[in-house]
Write a structure and sequence with these properties.
27 helices; 671 residues; eight-stranded antiparallel beta sheet
Length: 671
Amino acid sequence: MDQQRQRIQDDLRGLVRGDVACDEVSTRLYASDASIYERAPTAILRPRSTADVANGLRYAAEQKIPVRARGAGTGLAGESLGEGLVIDFSRYMRRVIRTDPEQVRVQPGLVLARLNDHLRHFGRLFGPDPANSSVTTLGSVIAIDAGGSHWLQYGSARRHIESLEIVLASGEILEVGREPIHSDAEDSSHATKRTLVRRVANLLERNAELIERYRPKTLVNQSGYNLTDAIVDGHLHLARLLAGSEGTLALVTEATLATQPLPKYRGVGLLFFSSLENAALAVQELLPFQPVACDLLDRRHLSLAREADVRYDLILPAAAEAMLLVEHAGDDLRSVEGQLSSALDHVRKKRRLAFDSLATGDREEIDLYWQLARRATPTLHRVQGAARPLPFVEDLAIPPSALPEFLLRLQNTLKKRQVTASLYGHVGHGQLHVRPFLDLNDLGDVQKLDLLAGDLYDEALQIGGTISGEHGDGISRTPFLRQQYGELYEVFRELKDIFDPLGILNPGKIIGDQRQSLVNSLRPPGLAPSLSQSAEAQNGEASVGVASPLESPPSQPPPLLVAPLQLLWTPLDVLQEARSCNGCGACRSQLSDVRMCPIFRVAPGEEASPRAKANLMRAIWTGTLPFESLATEEVKSIADLCVNCHQCRLECPSQVDIPKLMIEAKAAYVD
């Protein structure tokens, strides 16, 4: 550890009760998420209280250290990645503070699914349901204004936020909600909040026409700051304004959220189509029947589902090129069954768009159908070959009526760039998750990242869409924000300056360098040259590794490895196994119906998660951490958290063999 890191670690440990770590191994575990990027922080703080967060921010402000808030680390755009101080709320700040008849008060590290498990006892739920709700924290749900499959019924998180306890960049703690813009009462204890309200309200009122002009025609939008409808009836709803700000304006330490009653009855239908075009046309036919969810899966998702689970092989027709999952819900059984049946019959028999359908009201079958959608995207990483489904343009949103036209534009754009892609979306409200298959070892594919993003964003904006519907901007979309918002972008910049004049809160996200390329900060794709050349020398064969296309080869041959591999595989095999982990975070689940890491259940720190082990081995085999790290106590302590139970391997959507990776690490340490 260098002197600067040691000083920061010593200083913070004297200021907070929570955990602080600045060593290279610990920070490397926080260098990636579920995106394609990798940026190692300088320090990690796992606070135990709001006071810890405030003290950490005061110190960061004094030292001018960037601060990144993090929950489960499952962001797809690199929202929480970067240098500086990462504040991990998921370890300790994960309590339900208070439960009221129609509201709940929570800490930001609480997992959404665990909140709903708690609320189920009261006949309530928190409606927004992002795909990773089994591990996603409430702080992250607020930070990106998450919606999910049931947006048609519940909307996004913003709609349900009543108030927030926040910590400003200065370290000052405020409780904010629906605040009067003009108040006769002057309370010195709330002077900072009054100043904040007046400055923000003045900014929004001065630019009301500009805000409306650049408002997308979509039902959902999570690109830039959501300034629309922040002022209503002489009040500024500061809490809802902060939703979707990705930790760039303030950090949330507590949240009061509105809850909704659980529906008494649900019915789910599957519609199968011979073409993607027919599925797109069917969406407009279904919406008048008022479904609460309508999701689209393409042929690739369906094929992988049939291969992964025999139950899907029995119910998914081999001829299906696309499928729509439709749900109806309500308090009257006959009404739910009638709505669902009418909708399916209309699409299949009257409009003749679908060639087959299934319907169920059974709870277990409903869960089976929804698992098909929930696990769809991570399962794509089982596809063989060097190309991987990359999340960098995965969050387009368009007006639902424009879906058939946009899918044609999408296919033409992919053909022009000679790229294939998977498609999954919440098409009932126009949300599309597109993942192009590209090989980050191939320089030609790497160069396509910026080109393809620019092309697809142009097409989406031309029909009134947005470049981000629910996943936020992060590293992936910040460079394209001015393309969408033009002169309104300067209003975003002013808002950022009001909240964070020092610019220390998640810098580079939303407000950032508009010229930055998407190829910056990519995860290292290939073997470290030392491992590649060592394997060549030991095996007497050609190099088994591939250097990153963005790196120049070393000027001199590196030394040979001190120790060979202990198991029967090559360095490239090890790297490919580690790289198969896409960082989705499913292995962080603590739900009772999922077989997952027993160690993480007891001590839910990032180092105990199976994902952390894959990240660690990938760092070593790409040379980001020196190979000699395997002989250190820091790496051994992480490897020892794997007890070889294989629960994670069985449940992992990508079937990453973490136990084998850790046996290799332990054997190397012993050797």
